[in-house]
Amino acid sequence: MYCLKIYILFYILIISMVSISQCNSFLIKSKPDVMIVDESIQIHEIVYQLFVQKVDHFNLLDDRTFFQRFVVNSKYWNGTGPVFFIISGEQNMEASSVNSCQYTIWAKQLNALIVSLEHRYYGGSYVTEDLSTDNLKYLTTQQALADCVVFIDWFTKVYYHVPSSSKIISFGGSYAGTLSAYLAMKYPSKISFSVASSAPLNPVVNFYQYMEVIQKSILLLNNGEKCLNNIKLANNKIIEMIHDPILTYNITKLFGLCSNIDFDNDLSTFMFEIANVWGTAAQYGNLVPGYISLDSLCNIMVDDSKEPLDNYLYIWYGMKNSDECNDVTYQTMIANFKYSQIDHLNTRNELFNMTRQWLFQCCTEFGFFITSDSYDQPFTNFNFNFQRQICIDVFGKKPTLSTSWTLVEYGGISPNYNSVRNVLFVSSTNDPWSSLSISKSNQYKIVIVENGTHCSDMIPINEVSVPDVARAQNEIFNYILDALN
Ligand SMILES: *[C@@H]1O[C@H](CO)[C@@H](O)[C@H](O)[C@H]1NC(C)=O
Ligand SMILES: *[C@@H]1O[C@H](CO)[C@@H](O)[C@H](O)[C@H]1NC(C)=O
Ligand SMILES: *[C@@H]1O[C@H](CO)[C@@H](O)[C@H](O)[C@H]1NC(C)=O
Ligand SMILES: CC(=O)N[C@H]1CO[C@H](CO)[C@@H](O)[C@@H]1O
């Protein structure tokens, strides 16, 4: 696990994801590092192992199985310490996930056994022969949680003979944090304590708050007001030019697009792509080496010697690293999402087309459609209908978006107190996802990271640049110690 390359990016942005992972363009200085905690553990010492898991936990007439991957770090385990169960989310599980992140440091201190289970349908844990819409029906949080408990039972009792006195603590960040909370709520007899970092718990459909937090974070910067204003000017200029039959072509040229784009869905796709640069910076800048921060983006944006649109272009090209044209059409995006084959021979599905699975989860259980529908943010032209249409066009039939069931099932941001006694919610104030987390209440166990971004509390302490993270991590550790006593 790259602590924290992982975790929810926009689901759209195949193009920026390509540039971010290849990273030789000038704004992205280096490939994001894997934040290995224990250098004495060789990469080859941690190997993927396979667990035979049920395809459908809730159909007793279905005995099909699939191989689910897991990795173990038993270096610190002394036979009686706790078990750290690391939940992997909506991406390929790196073998290093049991040797990275702050929990590895704590595991060392507590002689814990660390194990991580890959989420069904992601990475190498394919459930079905392909990812056709019908075959995605076993991709639900209920199934994923059942995977966890069935696995934990086998792992602790049969595989490692963990004494029953050892407590099991689950960790997860972002969507995996949501699962970490759900796991302790639904199966309290299995999980003694759970840490849920930056966990979106509120399944809102129109997630306009995401962009509001970005605006708020920009306004905390010294040049924030001007930066925001220039973003708006640049956006307006693009819209104005695209609507002009002659100047449309200028946009195509300036942004190196493969073709002229239409006013509707193409424009939305393009504007969402542009906003994603800022979203990624807001989630990971200042935190994960190699990611540009909002601060640096704003420094470019306020350069008075150029027009706002030129500053925008500078950023745009800084994020790209190939001479190929940029295909930002709606049609291409949909085609990418529609790709449902599994390529077992290499990692292309994992890196690029994995977003189909996450999109499916959003289109069915969570919503989380990031929109520009709020007035309190600078972006424009990706509204709710656009986002909703993607689900329909990708999955061929209208998937049932059942966020109301998700709320009934898990309680959203006001879960029953008794069910979350053993859950610690960690939220960061500058995380665009924070509005969907539990961050205010005297009822629940909460730790807030002031000025922190997405999952900042999970970064190993020596890598952290946000001052408040150390304090927050101390607090989290004290909760863990309490839970162990
Ligand atoms: C294992 O480690 C835990 C936590 O550090 C400690 O409390 C326990 O006594 C140790 N057990 C053994 C057998 O050394
Ligand atoms: C549009 O492109 C044409 C031809 O390259 C150029 O002459 C013109 O100045 C451009 N207009 C704007 C507003 O960028
Ligand atoms: C958070 O950021 C603001 C604005 O930069 C700063 O004034 C404040 O001291 C920071 N708080 C902490 C706890 O670092
Ligand atoms: C990188 C990669 O594997 N991309 C694939 C995603 O899906 C489309 C199908 O629409 C393929 O053409 C791409 O090669």
Q: Could you tell me the strand content as a percent range?
A: 5-15%
Q: Spatial order of the strands in the main sheet? A: 1-2-4-3-5-6-9-10
The residue fraction in helices comes out at: 25-40%
Please report the total strand number as a whole number: 10
CATH topology of the largest domain: Rossmann fold
Radius of gyration: 22 Å
CATH 4th-level superfamily of the largest domain: Alpha/Beta hydrolase fold, catalytic domain
Output the keywords.
485 residues; alpha/beta; Rossmann fold; 2 domains; 8-stranded mixed sheet; two-stranded parallel ribbon; 16 helices; 10 strands; globular; binds 2-acetamido-2-deoxy-beta-D-glucopyranose
Could you explain the architecture of this structure?
This protein is α/β, with parallel strands linked by helices and 485 residues long. The protein has two domains: 29-202 and 412-484, Alpha/Beta hydrolase fold, catalytic domain (Rossmann fold, 3-Layer(aba) Sandwich); 206-395, no CATH class. The chain contains 16 helices and ten strands. An eight-stranded mixed beta sheet has the order 1-2-4-3-5-6-9-10, with helices on both faces. Strand 5 (168-173), helix 4 (175-186) and strand 6 (193-197) form a beta-alpha-beta unit. Helix 3 (141-159) crosses helix 4, helix 5 (209-219) crosses helix 6 (224-243) and helix 6 (224-243) packs across helix 10. The chain is globular, with a radius of gyration of 22 Å. The two termini are 29 Å apart. Mean pLDDT is 89; it is low at 4-24 and 348-353. Bound molecules: 2-acetamido-2-deoxy-beta-D-glucopyranose (NAG) (4 copies).
